[in-house]
Known about the structure:
Keywords: Glyoxylate bypass, NAD, Oxidoreductase, Peroxisome, Tricarboxylic acid cycle. The protein has a domain at 41-189: Rossmann fold. Helix content is 41%, strand content 16%. The protein contains 13 helices and eleven strands. The strands form three sheets. It has a seven-stranded mixed β-sheet with strand order 3-2-1-4-5-6-9, with helices on both faces. Strands 7-8 form a two-stranded antiparallel ribbon. Strands 10-11 form a two-stranded antiparallel sheet. Residues 50-51, 53-57, 77-79, 119-124, 133, 137, 140, 160-162, 164, 189, 192, 220, 266-268, 271 line the site of nicotinamide-adenine-dinucleotide.
Amino acid sequence: xEPRVDPSQRIARIASHLHPPTSQMEEISLLRxxxxxxxxxxxxxxVAILGAAGGIGQPLAMLVKMNPLVSLLHLYDVVNTxxxxxxxxHMNTGAVxxxxxxxxxxxxxxxxxDLIIIPAGVPRKPGMTRDDLFNIxxxxxxxxxxxxxxxCPGAIVNLISxxxxxxxxxxxxxxxxxxTYNPKRLLGVTTLDVARANTFVAEVLGLDPREVNVPVVGGxxxxxxxxxxxxxxxxxxxxxxxxxxxxxxxxxxxxEVVENFASxxxxxxxxxxxxxxxxxxxxxxxxxxxxxxRSMPVTKNxxxxxxxxxxxxxxxxxxxxNYLLCVFINFFELY
Length: 335
Ligand SMILES: NC(=O)c1ccc[n+]([C@@H]2O[C@H](COP(=O)([O-])OP(=O)(O)OC[C@H]3O[C@@H](n4cnc5c(N)ncnc54)[C@H](O)[C@@H]3O)[C@@H](O)[C@H]2O)c1
Ligand SMILES: O=C(O)C[C@H](O)C(=O)O
């Protein structure tokens, strides 16, 4: 027979996410995995989304809540987390959801997490480059990473906040200063570029995008996005005009979305879906590593960062791909 529990205590516990500033909510946020199991969630990953109330954060939270590998989902933002948490927590999937609002609750949001996903910060407006976001987003990422170094130094960190080419090195420096840096655990999210490349190449070839796989390496801005059109699967060939068109469209896909909105916006649906599906896309291409690009040797071999470290992929087969690689390396040499 189950021990008698005071109904008012049970109701307070279930509804705790509706009153995030209370200490009761922070206590419950420190659930152990066994506690999650007791609430119906399978044992699994503990995931925190920082910037969870934003355009990326909300659909991402929904998709992570749908992932059966996740047992505990912490939603942190400086605004609106109570509403988002209430909404997401009503989904009838296993993961337990807790909300955290504002800087005083950051440490509780991070404690014990296995994976931190960061879409916190401002998106660009039409006419802006991702670099224009640097001044605001660099500070936000730095503060959040200081919290991670303190509260969950072993967690895998996925950085979505732009400019990804800069926020990843910032995070790396914070972790180095704290003595917690592990390059295998810090990743910038560029999976969007792979999704776009698959879609645009499929359009040109008249194929189903789900059956096309285009490796995209490099960074996540303009010429640093390096689609390897000679390595497309299924094997195919393109005319020079098609190569120019595809390269330009893939490298400027984010700008295409931003320019088609009248105000501040980023590619919310595609980015959330590519992250939330975790596994459907070849994640090894969807990352920026914090390695020293300046010392990257100019070779015909392509290496990518994976969660197991740098991995050899293949040799570049075409002059055009070599040309793009040189543009990319020159960009970082000047950077
Ligand atoms: N890497 C990618 O593929 C990719 C894709 C899309 C968007 N982005 C980037 O992701 C970022 C977010 O985009 P969005 O469309 O969700 O913007 P948004 O404005 O809709 O949401 C950002 C959220 O971050 C929150 N926030 C701001 N400061 C914070 C802080 N200090 N701590 C916690 N949360 C904070 C805001 O309150 C807001 O809810 C932008 O920088 C955008 O450029 C990257
Ligand atoms: O382009 C942006 O500003 C958002 C994101 O990086 C994207 O590629 O859609």
